[in-house]
Amino acid sequence: DSKDWKTVQESKTFTFMTYNVGKFQKFKEEIGHYSYAEVASVIRHYDADIVGLNEIIDSQVQKLSTEIGSGWNFYFAPAAGYDNGNAIMASSDLKEVRRMKFDLPCVTEGYQTRSLGVMECEDFVFCVTHLDHKSENAQITGVNLITDWAEKNFGSGKTSKPVILLGDMNCEPRDKAITKFKENWTLVSSTELTFPCKPNQSPTKCIDFIFVYNNGVKYDVGESHAVTPTRHSNVTLASDHLPMYADITFKKQK
What are the E-state strand segments in the chain? Predict the structure, then answer.
């Protein structure tokens, strides 16, 4: 098992990553091709166990999987009426239990329906979303729907698995949606800046986050960083978002 080095006695550490890939075309003119190779390079370099992707098309998930290499499972969670959605890329070392998806409805006319993609594994529940980019009301509605779903399915006493939620939340750490999340979720990722990322220009906002649901499951958080150019040179050509990762340790399920 290629992940054996991460196992210590009854505990196991996983690397979770969130990445808005911008349909792999944000810097297509600059690099002369879609940025599958650049995104795959970052994922491989950090040995991520599972990655939540935003702004991706169904057909692109297969292409990215091929670029990363063999041994990856993937799941696409489209948003109704939206030209892209969320996806999950998972190492085949993870034992998958089931997949789920539901829409976060549009609450303001003219705005976009969003989605939540879920992959339940033997050791944890992994969720990826992408909140509305304009409407604070839509963001908070999304937070409430996601939290209600987590409580109903994986609340205290209902599971021994941690629930990981990540994605591009389109708001900053002090905004109302993040404050609302923190009522029921613990922010485990760094608040280092992730957006907008451009070649030779530093980002100005943190809008990409990783949370763990407060359902009583014990865990420890290790390193968490935005992947900056000093950490991986290709990252400024991959997307207009920097990826964010967090190492989380919890007891392995029996």
Answer: 7-8, 11-20, 50-56, 72-78, 85-91, 96-104, 114-121, 125-130, 163-168, 185-187, 208-213, 220-226, 244-251
